[in-house]
Write a structure and sequence with these properties.
Blueprint (H helix, E strand, L loop, with lengths): L14 E4 L2 E3 L2 H11 L6 E5 L5 H7 L4 E6 L2 H13 L5 E5 L12 E6 L8 H5 L1 E11 L6 E7 L5 E8 L13
Parallel strand pairs: 3-4, 3-6, 4-5, 6-7
Antiparallel strand pairs: 1-2, 7-8, 8-9
């Protein structure tokens, strides 16, 4: 956390991290992580690194975490923080997360920490059969946290978990 926000780090509220972005409250990070059902040998794709909080949590559970952040300054700061915390199994890429990270696909699990209107097709394609994705999706005022699972035949099942409010995933909708 930036030093000025450290007194609020354990409050269950989203906090601003700059660039009109926020870090999710701890209960949402915990819920999304739990919904992924990560196994020790999983390869996880995270879209929206932010300060690296979610990536650091994932790094404790998964074999490898690939995280994508669109804002260079946030990504560079997250790289520094993750290195400082000893998260050697996290690889961070500065890019548009809408497109995922095809060079390391397919992934056992995908977690998205910004909301597209619709689940990006590249993320669906990069999820292994039998894999699971946790993603907030929908228009800004009607977003739902969704658990999507890819069946062996490639079809997707979706389950809405609860209403949420996340920053918009850049590269979706009209700004493509």
């Amino acid at each position: 956390m930036p030093i000025e926000l450290q007194p609020y780090a354990y409050d269950n509220i989203p906090l601003p991290i700059g660039f009109a972005k926020t870090i999710s409250q701890p209960s949402i990070v915990a819920l999304m992580t739990d919904l992924l059902d990560i196994r020790a040998d999983d390869s996880v794709l995270e879209i929206g690194t932010g300060l690296g909080y979610q990536a650091a949590v994932l790094a404790q559970l998964a074999r490898k975490v690939y995280s994508v952040e669109i804002i260079d300054e946030l990504g560079q700061e997250a790289k520094r923080r993750l290195r400082q915390q000893g998260c050697s199994n996290v690889e961070l890429k500065i890019a548009n997360g809408y497109h995922g990270c095809s060079e390391h696909a397919p992934f056992d699990k995908v977690i998205v920490t910004a909301a597209p209107d619709l689940i990006p097709p590249p993320l669906i394609h990069q999820l292994k059969a039998g894999g699971k994705m946790v993603i907030p999706a929908g228009p800004p005022n009607t977003q739902q946290l969704i658990v999507a699972e890819k069946l062996a035949n490639g079809r997707m099942t979706m389950k809405e978990i609860l209403p949420v409010r996340f920053s918009q995933l850049e590269g979706t909708g009209s700004d493509l």
